[in-house]
Amino acid sequence: MTTNPTVTRTTGAVPLPATPDAISNESSRTAGAPKRRPWILRALRSRAFGWLVFAAALVAWQRYATANPSPRYATVTDVAVQWWDQILGGPLLTATLQTLRTMLIGYGVAAVLAVVIGVLMARVRLVYVLLEPPLELLRPMPISAVIPLLILYLGIDDAMKISVVALAAFFHILLNAYSGAGSTHRTMMDTARTFGLTWRQTMAEIVIPAAAPSIFVGLRSALAASLVISVVVGMIAGNDGLGHLLMIQQQSFQVTDLIVGAVTIAMLGYALNAAFLFVERRVLHWHFGATRTHD
Amino acid sequence: MATSAAPTAAGTEHSATGSAATLLTADDVAMTYRTRRREVTALRGLSLDIGAGEFVALVGRSGCGKSTLLRLLSGLLPATAGQIRVAGQPIDGPPRQARCVFQDYAQSLLPWKTVAGNVRFGLRHAYEPAEGGHDERVAHYLDLVGLGHAADRYPWELSGGMQQRAAIARALAARPQLLFMDEAFSGVDALSRAKLQDVLLHAWAEEGLTVVFVTHDIDEAVYLADRVVVLHPEGRGVLADVRTGLPRPRGQVTTRELPEFLHHRRELLQLVLD
């Protein structure tokens, strides 16, 4: 990855880095005076540039949609105005809150169950032996294949929707909790033993904190899965939520409203992820610090 | 700088061991590791008595089973034969009155707790409950190892030597009678190591501990201990049990220049090498 200066220094041109990140890490670590990049390359590498291109695309879309009016698409300003009107009240707000509620309850139930079961499976042989066969058979099953069965048993209301979301989130968290709790360093476990910690104290004070970085990896991928499934389950059950709203709008060909719904889901996902990262940075600050100073 | 942390007058009382009551006994202990294909005997026929207040170093060639012995003595590994007793009681798991300091300090300190938090962990899981408030006990043990200024820092922000001092402070905060140390100083640089040795001697003198210290470094063994136990190279028990009786307090420069130091060093090196 490292560019050898004696080979690459032919003309004044800066050789294009193969992978920009590898090069930037390299140069920030080497003690010698790092060469300052030309401003154009620095600008191209900044995050603001990406958002600028995105904004330009919106402007292009707006101009095209205004110049060629059609019921098949909407202008950016129409979408923005509609979104603002609807998010303050009415069906969009109701549907968003319904979806968010289903999602958060299902996700929360899954998080608690998966962490408890994952840690127990990693630390209690009997639990592992008993739960491994059914969980391994259930895991590869697509969640969409389970929905009809759950509708049969639980109906199409909250119980079913929350179960489906929980099921979708469960395995992401379970696998990470299991592997995290199973790989506590031997010296760490010896420390717990020599300090006379009971089994419960060992779990609470050693195993679970040590597994926390791994558990958070699972929680994060489960968050994305929960949002997707909570929208989809609304489409299938067809009674409430953003999924249901989108289906109605699609059937009545309300293009602007459809885009408004999609934008709402995207923003919901963005906000949830941002909130997640905020919590993660606080809970795992020690982990990020330790891995940063480690070489 | 290094000598300032050396044991004070209290340390000299310690060296008058021998008459002290036996705290730790290993009675014809053996350890055989069984794999699917074969059995490997790491240690057999080992008997050892360690008195309360002693500072004993275990040395021997690599593969002589000294780390195995320490795991047996500290109850982390059950012996396949023989018996280990602490204060007369046969052990079944880590004895309540013992704590360990491991070589791998980075995996032993809790990275999600500050240095003070780690010491507080030792107080919470103590053999004898601490007298006085927790905060002042934490400060006491941090000062004892010279880490008072680093209380609010995280282990991974510190050098290896400072992390190992934090591990020692945490072990001492539990007020153990016995301290087991497994190659505890081999992971740090030479200067930090000398400092750690003096911190340990100081703490040993202050806290009235019994220390069993495994090392592959003969100089370290002679410098720290009153008694150096050499293990047989093929794991057949104790090869030699040398009482050095060097004067205390010890100093990194003065002690290492004593004729007795050099004499014991030569004697032990020959025992280990031959």
From TrEMBL, chain A:
Keyword check for rRNA-binding: no
Domain of life, per lineage: Bacteria
GO biological processes: transmembrane transport
Localization in the cell: Cell membrane
Pfam family, one: BPD_transp_1
Coiled coil location: none
Any one cellular-component term (Gene Ontology): plasma membrane
Membrane topology according to the record: Multi-pass membrane protein
InterPro entries according to UniProt: MetI-like, MetI-like_sf
Domain ABC transmembrane type-1: start-end pairs: 96-276
UniProt keyword list: Cell membrane, Membrane, Transmembrane, Transmembrane helix, Transport
Region described as Disordered: spans on this chain: 1-31
Keyword Transmembrane recorded: yes
Positions of transmembrane segments: 104-125, 137-156, 162-179, 217-238, 258-279
UniProt biased composition (Polar residues): 1-11
Family: Belongs to the binding-protein-dependent transport system permease family.
Entry protein name: ABC transporter permease
Species this protein is from: Microbispora hainanensis
